[in-house]
Amino acid sequence: xxxxxxxTAVLLAAAALVGAGCGxxxxxxxxxxxxxxxxxxxxxPGQEAGAAYMKITAKEADELVSATVSSDVAGSAExxxxxxxxxxxxxxGNEMSHDHGAEDAMSGSMDAMAMRAVKSIxxxxxxxxxxxxxxxxxxxMKLKKPVKAGDEIELTLKxxxxxxxxxxxxxxxx
Amino acid sequence: xGKPFAGPARFASIAVAVLGLISALAACGSDENKADALxxxxxxxxxxxxxxxxxxxxxxxxxxxxxRADRGKVLLVxxxxxxxxxxxxxxxxxxxxxxxQLPRPARDRVEVGMVTVDPERDTAKVLNxxxxxxxxxxxxxxxxxxxxxGRAEKAFRASHExxxxxxxxxxxxxxxxVTYLVDPGGVVxxxxxxxxxxxxxxxxxxxxxxxxxxxQN
Lengths: 174, 217
Description:
Chain A is mainly beta. Helix content of chain A is about 15%, strand content about 45%. Chain A has two helices and eleven strands; from the N terminus they run ααβββββββββββ.
């Protein structure tokens, strides 16, 4: 009666393997958040502020909480959004006219535009969040030198529920 | 003498009015105009900024430069600042792309002038280096006189607001991000809101840049 030492060892090993497989250690970061088309806009000589954009899809609901960049690229980086400030100066309906009423969705805002830091960017489950000009962006501050077309800039993205991700943003005009 | 508008004088003035009306209607009703409806916004009555001038710190600029196009050209005016990470580079890049879609000779008839809403950080040197990245030639309007800047903004129905200073001394500026097309008379003929694409800009430019439509590349 009783298990042989060998059997016990095998059973313990099997248990350990199963335990490891079932463990919730955030697992595959490579899978839980996907980043597509990360890019940075080229900057003018002397331009201190830059912007990086990308498309992020999180498998499960998550939040992008920070983006950092190496100090030889910029002094710091911040999550930002561009929004219409809502302070519409004298653009009363009577005064303005516009031929393409129905196509207005993408035609932009006559309002003052504000760019402001955000604490995080919400990533709903399985929904692509597009960071693009006029919307969310990573603001790069105190750029050490101009960003030229083709430059590669590494950003480290930190999430609320997933492991950090390093992405390489390639610089282009637009 | 009697009534000044009786007889031949009256007939003449009516004839002139009728002729004027006919040509105006002809222009409005032409297929050309129907096919190229403007992408940007127009205003009735149109803004007239002919009386506004600001120091132009571009190479070759004058101490006072009127915010209107030289004869035979159009002037695109934009209020912005160089510490702007997203809105200004996007707009200037889109405007530059739009201009590049014009036939080569027409491009020379488009002038671009940026008015800085952040003269504190945007020195002449900074402004010129910035604009030189997007354009071959430009006007760089900069004034440290808040009232003077305010008057210029008011003429365009634009505004700006400097945000709170961060610990590192930097700050954001909220500002009207419209690009205005001004003709030689100082009349704002069309306004492109932030986000107007290069195609739309090029299409509208063809309406106002003399000869842009007819020229071959």
